[in-house]
Amino acid sequence: MDETTEIFQDTLDEEKHFVQQLARVYDDATNKHWDNEVIIIIKNYVTLYKKTKEETLQLLLNLFPSTPTKKDAIHASLIGFWYQYIIVTQDNAFKYYKIAADLGDGFGITQLTIKQVYWFQKAAEKQFNPAVDELARLYIKSRYVNGDLHHALKLILLNKRNSVDTWRPPFVLYQIFSYF
């Protein structure tokens, strides 16, 4: 095995280990802190293998299937997170959060991504943003669908307290109930 082949094999092993670690976290349905664990895994990966932020994002993108299923919602959410916080690209972040919302049932994806809605609003400097409003309604609806009306209402009120008039709570409430 020549040096180039060895380096290539090492890279494959690194990526395989990285993917296995992420898969273990995703597949544990009882794990209430998967978002923190995923962030730790990524930070360790970047530090251990001296990867740049861009290389790590590229790895996550390469691993994302061309025809994602429901179980890929968290992966999409993670890519959105990476774009938003590490690469700081709001448009791409929203694109992947939207994929996560469309794929997910509102349970596995909300723990990390519900936080992102608020930060999107902050990034938009508290101005009404229809794309963010749509995403916010998706997550609030997902909480309601999962029987957590209390949490859905809390999210609406929390946003109202922290913003000017971005979600317009009565309108959002109407939107939630208009689905049923």
Question: How would you characterize this protein structure?
Answer:
InterPro entries: TPR-like_helical_dom_sf (IPR011990). This is 307_t:CDS:1. It is a single chain. The longest helix has 25 residues, at 3-27. The protein is an all-alpha fold and 180 residues long. The protein contains 9 helices and no strands. Helix content is 74%, strand content 0%. It is globular and about 40 Å long. Residues 1-8, 106-112 and 160-180 have low confidence and may be disordered. Helix 3 packs antiparallel against helix 4 and helix 6 (110-123) runs antiparallel to helix 7. The protein has helices at 3-27, 34-48, 53-63, 73-87, 90-103, 110-123, 130-145, 149-162, 169-178. The protein has one domain.
Q: Can you tag this structure with a few keywords?
A:
180 residues, 9 helices, 74% helix, globular
TL;DR?
By secondary structure, this protein is mainly α. The chain has helices at 3-27, 34-48, 53-63, 73-87, 90-103, 110-123, 130-145, 149-162, 169-178. α1 runs antiparallel to α2, α4 (73-87) packs antiparallel against α5 and α7 (130-145) runs antiparallel to α8.
Q: Name the average pLDDT.
A: 61
Can you tell me the number of structural domains?
Answer: 1
Q: Please compute the radius of gyration using only Cα atoms.
A: 18 Å
Residue runs with pLDDT of under 50 for 5 or more positions: 1-8, 106-112, 160-180
Number of helices: 9
Shape: globular
Amount of helix: over 70%
Question: Could you outline the blueprint of secondary structure elements for this entry?
Answer:
Layout: H1 3-27, H2 34-48, H3 53-63, H4 73-87, H5 90-103, H6 110-123, H7 130-145, H8 149-162, H9 169-178
Helix pairs in contact: 1-2, 3-4, 4-5, 5-7, 6-7, 7-8
